[in-house]
Specification:
Number of helices: 2
Helix content: 25-40%
Structural class: alpha+beta
Number of domains: 1
Distance between the termini: 18 Å
Largest sheet: 2 strands, antiparallel
Strand order of the largest sheet: 1-2
Strand content: 5-15%
Order of helices and strands: HHEE
Shape: elongated
Length: 71
């Protein structure tokens, strides 16, 4: 699975967590969910395991502090 911002699985995770709002651990759960949701943006295009797909190489451009993929 390739990480995609604001994906259907990420949105479903959020909805599932909202259903647990009466649980004592809900505030902590929402913190975890918020972090995971933000990661869908920061890890866009990467896969969740060691693979050449995740490699950063000369096809990347350095723009100030950020690396941007050409493809």
């Amino acid at each position: 699975m390739v990480c995609v911002p604001d994906s259907q699985p990420a949105n479903q995770m959020f909805l599932d967590a909202l259903d647990m709002k009466n649980k004592p651990y809900w505030p902590h759960l929402m913190g975890i969910v918020a972090h995971v949701y933000a990661d869908t943006f920061s890890h866009f295009g990467f896969v969740g395991f060691a693979d050449a797909w995740n490699r950063v190489n000369e096809q990347h451009i350095r723009n100030d502090k950020f690396l941007w993929r050409l493809n």
